[in-house]
Amino acid sequence: MRVLVVGSGGREHALAWAISASPLVDRLFCAPGNAGIAEEAECIAIGATDIKGLVRFCRGEQIDFVVVGPEAPLVLGLVDALEAEGIAAFGPSAAASAIEASKAFAKDLFVGAQIPTAAYRRFRDPATAKAFIASRGAPIVVKADGLAAGKGVVVAEDLDTAYRAVDAALVERRFSTAGLEIVVEDFLDGQEASFFALVDGKDALPLATAQDYKRVGDGDSGPNTGGMGAFSPSPILTPAVEGAVMERIILPAVAAMQREGRVFKGVLYAGLMLTEAGPTLLEFNARFGDPECQVLMMRLMSDPLPALMAARDGVLKSVDLRWHADSTLCVVMAANGYPGEPQRGSEIRGLDAAASDPKVKIFHAGTRRDDGCLIADGGRVIGVTAVGGNLAEAYHSAYAAIDRIDWPEGFCRRDIGRDAAGLAG
To answer: How many degrees, rounded to 5, is the angle at CA 393 between CA 388 and CA 397?
Structure first.
């Protein structure tokens, strides 16, 4: 088969790395890719949101299957455009991608399907939103309705922070059209976890469990980011909890999307809060998480390609995935300034030494090559991912690799997986 992966981040590097090992693949492309993906696939200089350019490339190269990584091309209808040309693609349609693209639509869907979620209200007027926040008190959560690259959610510990979040979206238009409407919802107390399931429109197949870290600083301090690290499996997602998530959250959502006429095929990523009342849904994403995809792909024993094809073809019931018992842990190294404006253009040295440990794989997210040098070209730049017999082993291997990297202009959290591994701070 001739396969195309669409995207340029760490998630796409992990997917390309896993798919490249498939005996079904004769030739693997990635558009646009990055410096790390170029080691696994042939990178094509077509942007992930260039729908016409991607379709034209797939026709010309007779691509058999396309795996769409990021959310933006899904929302823009890349899968619809490919399928209209007879090109098989993994990922939801534009209509089904609304489950991520609009938090307001998604929250209404959750309530209609009786999926446990935080109480909420939708607002377009800042004064009305602030009055509601004052009546509920803090802590409280303010979310931009649309796609905001992981930066549109503010967990406000006090009313002033909540009011500023309202103004950022509805007055300052910091998120452009993604912030024309906001969702204000109750703060939920508990432990966060990530749950992934492949979906074929009617059936769902749960994947391995994972836990991620959204805040930029150690101890969950600072603003939200696209994700600063992750590990798998998650000890808090027990088999009993997994069963409850499938029964009360995943399958009802799949059925609700069918009823809406927005049949969902692809991967559903449920951001969960495990509360005293049970698992509660924070939000859905319509694609693999980043950096959760990195730890999942390193634990996946099976060939991922047949499973992705089965989700597209509506035959997931015939698929059984096998997972390594080992633990995996990913630490994201970001450029100074992130999640604000990152410093670009600095050189990263020492990656060969860092990756000399066979238990370590470095996934690239925002990198490029310039005269043979590896250059930081994004916010989240690399994901140092390690496997171990337990989480503590994976933790030590990942951070030992990071200590071999020479990149003064980059930083990372130093506590990814530490508490879960039972290690002292």
So the answer is: 90
